[in-house]
Structure formats: structure tokens, C-alpha cells
Amino acid sequence: MTGRPALLLAPALIVVAAALLVPLALLFVVSFWTVRSFRLQPDLSLAAWVRFVESYGGLTLYTLGIAALIAAICVALGFACAYALRFRAGRHADALLTAMLISLFGGYLVKVYAWKTILGADGILNGALSRLGLIEAPLPWLLYSRTAVVVTLTHFLLPLAVLPIYAALRNVSAESVEAARDLGASRAAVLRRVLLPQCRLGVFAAFAFCFLLAAGDYVTPLLLGGAGGSMLGQFIALEFSTRFNWPAGAAMAFGLLFASLGALALVWAALARATRP
Amino acid sequence: MSRAVLFLCLAFLLAPLALVVVFSFGSNALIGFPLGGLTLRWYAGLAADPGFLSALRTSLVVAIATAAAATLTGALAAFGLVRAAPGLARAALGLASLPALLPPLVIAIALTALVVRGLGLSLGTPVVVAGHLLIAQPFVILIVLARLASLDPAAVEAARDLGATPAQAFRRVTLPQIRTALVGAALIAAAISLDEFIVASFTLGGGNTLATFVWGKMRTTLDPSINAIATLILALTIGLAALALRLTRYHG
User: Fold this and answer.
1) pTM of the predicted model, to two decimals?
2) How far is CA B108 from CA A134, A198, A215, A233, in A?
3) A113 chain-B contacts, CB cut-off 8 A
4) Phi first, then psi: what are they for A198, rounded to 5°?
5) Helix axes B50-83, B210-220, angle to 10 degrees
6) CA gyration radius, chain A
7) What is d(CA B33, CA B19) in angstroms, rounded to the nearest whole number?
8) Which of A46, A65, A249, B4 is the most buried (most CB within 10 A)?
9) Which of A115, A123, A233 sits opposite B32 (nearest CB)?
10) Could you give all domains of chain A from N- to C-terminal order, each with its CATH number?
11) CATH for B50-248, among 1.10.3720.10, 2.30.40.10, 3.10.129.10, 1.10.490.10?
């Protein structure tokens, strides 16, 4: 392959420009338009943005909170998994990593569906608990709740958290960990002073992945969240599918995106401060 | 301690998928133990369901088109990245990876807005392929890039010194060494496409892919045939991914 680098990069970058950057720019413009009798009118109106802040500000903050909780759980579990894969798995490391990678696939909807059958009122978990005599009536809060959303999204996103942390831990030598332990550092100190400073970027990438995908998800809260577990994504999807109010949906989508990026900037600043070696 | 967490997490990740597979062979219409007798009834029902067969066909067409296009653009980009100046390479890789970071919902509505309002075209499988190409491309780039980085540049230089043209050196020296990575990347792209629901549901217009077909069934009833379709999706995506991991010998 002999072409110039820019020429070789061109097709992939054209795809990104045509299928992402131009559409995003148009969507941003549409957020300032208005709708009259189900027709989009080019306009320069802040109505959709005002509506986003007034009607959905609280739900946006709640959505970011849930997403942060899910991302934190994924990063904590993901770090333990990646650490075990890197330093504790021995000759099984390859097989275990493959199992972890495999679990990335298998169908997003399939996973949501599986949890619906597990957590349902006549689902497996309630059935098992009542047969063991631990409960008398099905626990209603298992399905259609915040808990169901957190469990399902953690299940979906955990492998995505493990991979960047594992990649970062591969650059950390076992000797540096042992040296710190030999010099009397506690486990917590090793984590904070030795491991985290060296894989800060991987941990942040894992958090950012999980946070952005959880914040933007609408399928899980729609199917498993019930009334108490609603998230902003559902209402964005609704504006585009049945309500046909694209400006509102566009303003909400960009509002969520900007708020998410702002939150991630705060997380990065906090992480950098906490893990200064 | 961390090892216990790893095993518990793997069980947490894999057990729900295993349950779906087990119940797809159970005769009970309700999902729950006891399982009832073993049966292939749900699979037989699917094979006779024209709605399912047309969804399967659409999914395969989209997945194959996505895999072919993403492998081409992604592999070319990977070749460009190893030759580009560090600054350009970093910027280009960042830009190409952007779709993997954004929520699929944002990609789906932006693409819909462009096609319907910006271009005045109708939705359909070509739009789904464009969306899936966008999402699968960064994974192809990373896989091919990892393989290219492990190649010894001396082999190509030796071929050139021995009088091979650049095209000959590529075809006889580089290509044989990266062929498995290309096949692996294509399989991953196909698996991502088969699995993808959100972009497909917004941009398909009419008809169904496997994912939107499952969605339709999930929203109406708890139909036991969902277990059978889910098992097929599992087998397809995990089979493709496992094959790709073997081929590319990808290790994190």
C-alpha cells in the first residue's frame, strides 16, 4: 500500500463527516427551529432550549446521577476484574479475558430481555426466593424500578469498563506493586499511590464510556424502569418517534450531551487531584 | 479478593445469557422453573414465521454490507495511520473513534434528521448500513492497527531491495501477514451490526431487522419464541466474535 497517508485516511474520515458531523450540525441547527402543525419551520427560537431547562432540568440531573452511579459501580467492579486478570489469574488469564470479551456481544436487547425474565413478578428470582421460603409474595420492586435499570445497565457496560482498565494495567509492572508492599504500604495506599496514578487514563476512559452510554440509554429504562426509573433518553426518543417535535428532541439531546461532558470534566479534575502520585 | 470478584462478575455476566439459551429449549410457555420437557417447538415456529425470516434476511444483508464497507474504510485508515505524522494520526484516530463514544440514540436521531430533513430522502437499509458502518469502523481500525504495529518493517524493505514494486511488496509480504486480522475485523463488524438495535430502529423505515423484530415481540407479550430468537442472535454474534478473537489473537 503506497498511497499518501491523507488519501488512505480519507474514506474513513468522510464516513465520520457525512454520517456523524454533518448530521450533528444539522441536529444542532434544528434545535432552534419551531414546529407548526407537525411541520418543521426554520427559525431562530430558543423555545426548545427553554423547555428543556424548565421541564427536563430535574430529569437530566437525575439521569446524570443514575449514569454516574452505574459508571462508578462498573469502574469499581471492572478495576477488581482487570486487576485479577492482570496480576492474579496466572495461566487462566487468556481464557478468562476471552470470556470477558465474549460477554461484550450476545445482543443488547437479549440482555435487557434476560433481566426482564429474571426480575419479573413471576420471574426466576422471585420464584427461587419464594420456593426457599424467604419471601411470601413476589418482591414488586425487583422489576420496573431504579434497581432493575442499574443492574441491567451494569450487566451491559461492565465488560466495557474492564477492557480499558486492563489495557492500562498491562503497562504497570508487578514489581512496582510488590516494592510498595515491601516498603510497608497498605493495600489502600498501593491502590491510591501506585496503581491509580499509573492507569488513571484507563480508569477515566472506562468511566467515560459507561457514563455516556448509560446517560444516553433509553431502552433499559423504558422496558425495566417503570414510573420510578425513567431517564431523559426515553423522552428524547419520544419527541422523535411519536410526538414529532424534533426541535425539542434535538435540544434535549444536545443538553444531555453538554451536561454529560461537563460532568466528565469535573470527574477528570477530581480523579487527577485524588491520584496525584 | 479480586479473583473472587472476577469470578462473580463473570458469573453475573454470563448466567443471564445461559438462562435464555436453556429456556429456549423448554416446553413451558412461561419463563420460570420448572423448565418442562425439552422441545424444539419454538425454533420450528420461527422457521415457519415469514416475519422472522424477512427480518433475518434484512439483518444478514445489512451485516454483510457493513462488514465489507467497514473493513475497506477501516483497513485503509489503519494503513494511513501508521504512515501519518504523529499529530495527524492522533487527530484522525480521535475523530474516527468519536462514534464509539457517543450514545447510539444521538447518532440515530442525527442521521434521521439529515436523511429525512436535510436530504429529503427516505429511510431504509442503506441508511442503516451507513449508521452501522460509522459505529463498526473504529473497531476495524483498532484491530488492523494492532496487527500492523506488530509487523516487522524490515520484511517489506527486504522485498523492495530485492526488486519488488510497492504493490508487489504489499500483495506478497504485507497482505499475507494481516489477512487474518482483516477477516477478524470483518467478523467483529458483522457482529456489531447484527447486535445493533437503536440506529436500526430509527433509520430502517419499514420492515424489521432481527433486533427490531425482537423489540416488537418484547413490547407486546412475553412470547417464548423470543428465547429462541435471542439464542440465535447470541449464537451468531458470539460465534462471530469468538472466531474473530481466535483469528486476530487479540489480547486486550
Assistant:
1) 0.90
2) 45, 36, 15, 12
3) 20, 214, 218, 226, 230
4) -85, -20
5) 130
6) 23
7) 11
8) A249
9) A123
10) 56-274 (1.10.3720.10)
11) 1.10.3720.10
